[in-house]
Every structure is written in C-alpha cells, then in structure tokens.
## 1
Amino acid sequence: MHAGGMTATDTTIKVPEALRDRIGRRAEREHTPLAVAIERALDEAEEPEFWREVRRYHAGLSDEDRRAYLNDRTLRDDLADPDDALTAEDAW
C-alpha cells in the first residue's frame, strides 16, 4: 500500500466539487466507499443498455430460431424433475 491507503493499481480522477459531493452522499447512504458507489452507479446505468441489446437480438430472431430456443433442453429450468430441487450437497 502507498501513503493514503491507495494501492499501485488505484487511479485518482479529478471531478467537479458538486459531483464529488453527489458521489459522497450516495456512498454515505449506501455505507460504502466512494469507489463502490461509483461502480454501483455505473452498473445501474449499464443494465438498461444490456436489456435493450437482448430485446434487439430477440427481435431479429426468425421463427425457426425462436423454436430452436424453445426446444433447447439446456435452457429449461426442469421444474418437473424432482431431482432438480436437490442441491449439489444432497446429490452426494
């Protein structure tokens, strides 16, 4: 660790005071370090884009592609299988 608690891989960024204060308030509300508050905010911002991409991909599927997904056993939750509820430990 370096002085101030930073590691060799940490990076310092300059942000306007108002933004720093917003990040600080969020971190305080969430009881997390500033870096975690920033990471969570980015994750929240990126999630809607992920789902837009999923919808865009699914919109481009042909009926044949959709049927292939419906018939793909690996995509099923298999709730009808009584052994499906077993945990890995139960199966030992």
## 2
Amino acid sequence: MRSVIFPGALFASFPEPASVARLQTAKRHQFTDVERAIISDYFGTRDSRVRPFGEPSSLTPGAALVPGTPKRLLPEELESRLPELAPEFDRVIVRGRVLLLEVQGELIHDVIEGLRID
C-alpha cells in the first residue's frame, strides 16, 4: 500500500499494482555470469552509459512490459549456447537490450544493456 498526501486531506492509500507486489514477494531471477558472458560475446558491447536521446528507461527489473511492446526472441544460434530456461521465462530482445522475462504478466526480472544489437 502506498500513502499519498494531498493538500487539504490527511492522506489516501492506493494498493500496489499486482505485478509489482508479486515480484517483490517472489524470488527475482537473474542472468548468471556465464549467461551474461555468452550473450555479450555474441552481440559485442558498446558503452552502456550512452543512451540515444529520448530513449525511455522503463526496462528495469521489477517493471512489466507495456502491452504491445515489440520484442523478439534471441537468435536460435545464441539460445542453443545458453542453459535451458524454466518454461515460465523467456530471453527476449527489446529496444537493444536482452531481458529475462517472466512470460505471465511480462515481468522483467533482469536486463543486459550495452550490447551491439542491430
């Protein structure tokens, strides 16, 4: 529950979005160091501090993808090098980043930035 103070009122409480509450109580899954190395070697890296002007930074662990956000699966050649995922997760590419995504609710568990993805 969040409490928000409004002028002229004591406060109002709003429930947390279900996706945020679920991720806070569930174990957050992350890419392993080995997975990060394999993915970085495949795509190559760039300076992750440089972000194109106006690019949103909403792709953070704990957030849910906005419905309709374009995403694509990793190339089959890369996916075959990585350990198998539990069926409730996917590794996807969104806006030049690789995400570890919980399929139900499209919750972001981890993000790899700074890759040279075309």
## 3
Amino acid sequence: MGGKTHRMKCRQLSDLRAELVRLKLELEEKQLVERAKGLIVSTKGVTEKEAFDMLKNISIEMNKSLTEAVEVILLGNRLLKPHPGRKIRKKP
C-alpha cells in the first residue's frame, strides 16, 4: 500500500508542477497582451477594448496566435524606439 500511495503522491506533484508551468505561461502571455494594449492606447488614443480588438484583428490578418502577433508588435516598437543617449542622424 505504501508504494501505491507514494506513486499517487508523485503523480499529483507532477500534475501540480505541470499546472504551475501552464499558469505561469498564461500569465506571461496576458502581461504581453496588456503591454501591447497599453502601447496602442497611448499611441492611437483608443480605448482598451478598441486596442484589444485591433490586436485580435492583426492576429487574424497575420494568421498567428494573439500572443505571436503581440510579440511582433512589441518587438517592432522596441526596434523603432530611439536608443537612450543616442542622437538620431537625419538624412542630408
């Protein structure tokens, strides 16, 4: 009986660890979506709902998951931001 109980406990622990990983990933994805929504709200002057709808539409147009589309948007924003302390050269 002790071996069976031990295996059950190990299985439960394994299930809990898997659930923890899933929940952490879900939280990270939600945080990314919130960051992208905030970026759209501040640059476009729209509501959070409108920003979320824009994100959903972009993900559909890209044929990507919402998280993948958000990651592209955030990366693009990061690449387009001026580097702190660096002067932007203007074309002659």
## 4
Amino acid sequence: MQGQIGVSQATFLIVDDVPTIRLILRRAIAIAAPQAVVCSAGTVGEARQLLAGNTITVVITDYHLPDGNGFDVVDAARRIDKTMPIILMSADATIAELGRIVGASNFIAKPFDMPHLLQLLGQASPAAA
C-alpha cells in the first residue's frame, strides 16, 4: 500500500496485485492527469483502507485480486461516493457488463490499448470536468 493523499487534488487509487501494472498505470496517469496524486494497493483490503482514510476521486481496479475481486473494490468505493469514476480492468471481457451492473463507470481490457486508457483516465480526472 502506498500514498497518503491530500484532499484538494485529483486522487487516483490503483488496485492491482501486479506491481508492473501499477507502474504502467502510474505513468499513464502522469500523462493524462499530470497534477493528480496516485496511491496504490495490491489487495481489496489495502484498497478499503485507502478508501476509508483518504479522499479518493478516481478508482482503477483489476478484477482478479488475491483476497477478493474488483467488484468488492467497486462496492467499497460506492459506499463512500456514489458518483466517483471507477474503471474496472480485466483480461476477461465478459466482466465488462457485470462491472457496470455492480457500479463500475468504465471497463478496459488487458492488455491495455494505451490511447483508450489515456482517454479514460483523462475523462475520469476531476480536473478534466
């Protein structure tokens, strides 16, 4: 788990158990929303702690996590903020529709299409609004 977050900035929470994916997403956010603060978690439990202890404005979560799944992260985020943008990721495209049903705003398939990822991140950033 990384990052204590300020309240006045766009704050992204990345949830993925693969450190390389978290690094790629950090770099993509730096391009799409350069002023954003980014924190990351490798598990649902860590994500819940960060959501409870910080003002998160955007969540990006993988579906497959070691202690649950991305739907658990979506549920935890929605309990805090009904309108926050939540991007669900998975190599399994069949998760996309289920993700929307449980409250995800968008879905992106792995491996990432970088232009599409950058577009979603830019749209999700509160600074873009």
